[in-house]
Amino acid sequence: xxxxxxxxxxxxxxxxxxxxxxxxxxxxxxxxxxxxxxxxxxxxxxxxxxxxxxxxxxxxxxxxxxxxxxxxxxxxxxxxxxxxxxxxxxxxxxxxxxxxxxxxxxxxxxxxxxxxxxxxxxxxxxxxxxxxxxxxxxxxxxxxxxxxxxxxxxxxxxxxxxxxxxxxxxxxxxxxxxxxxxxxxxxxxxxxxxxxxxxxxxxxxxxxxxxxxxxxxxxxxxxxxxxxxxxxxxxxxxxxxxxxxxxxxxxxxxxxxxxxxxxxxxxxxxxxxxxxxxxxxxxxxxxxxxxxxxxxx
Length: 297
Fold this sequence. Notes:
The chain is α+β, with helices and mostly antiparallel strands and 297 residues long. The protein has helices spanning 23-39, 74-86, 165-172, 189-214, 268-276; strands at 9-16, 44-46, 89-99, 102-110, 116-121, 127-128, 131-132, 146-148, 153-156, 178-180, 186-187, 217-220, 224-227, 234-237, 241-243, 249-252, 259-266.
């Protein structure tokens, strides 16, 4: 679909919410948030990571595989109808059942006509205390991708991907004007007093640096709430945000409030920034071969 270059203002929506143990309830809440964003003028709306459930990766429990669904499937069908109704594009983070014994942490990209443009399967899979994702998710096998939606050329990465400059760069090199990062990240309550502020600052700073290094916008919705699937649980820190092409924060959500952010982006800034800070021009691609090694030793 041809992009209208005469109007480069695109409004993005972020849905920040808490999640209950009831997937149907969570889906209803997110659909309502997307619809609210659309009514406020959003043209591309992104959900938080794995919005249909609480963050089940706090434990390794085979029963949680029942939360997964196929893509296309019932949730993408509902999202597709909503996208078509409001003429919006949607980025939705889902637990994908690809086949028995094969599951992915996947983002579905739906265009404004309701069609499923494609999927991105999370490439970097963490395995840390309370983030036992390797038990559930097979690493993505589709690589880093971009999609031309009705409103912008977008790239989608997921949560742990946000710590890797390689992922942002390879997506930006395909022409992404906006990088979306559906996210579920928070504090271990016992660590919050000592490390919480620095942990959050590092998370935000890392993604703002992707915007600067690649001259593109970064959009990151994160969940809220203290989900206790273990005695300690995770206290999700919210603070969903949007950064512009120079890393400046355009909008930021609260720590504990459910909210929908709608933020206008001037996509003309992508070209302006990249011509004034020509990092892509000056890359020494002839000297980066060792980047594919685990370690240079």
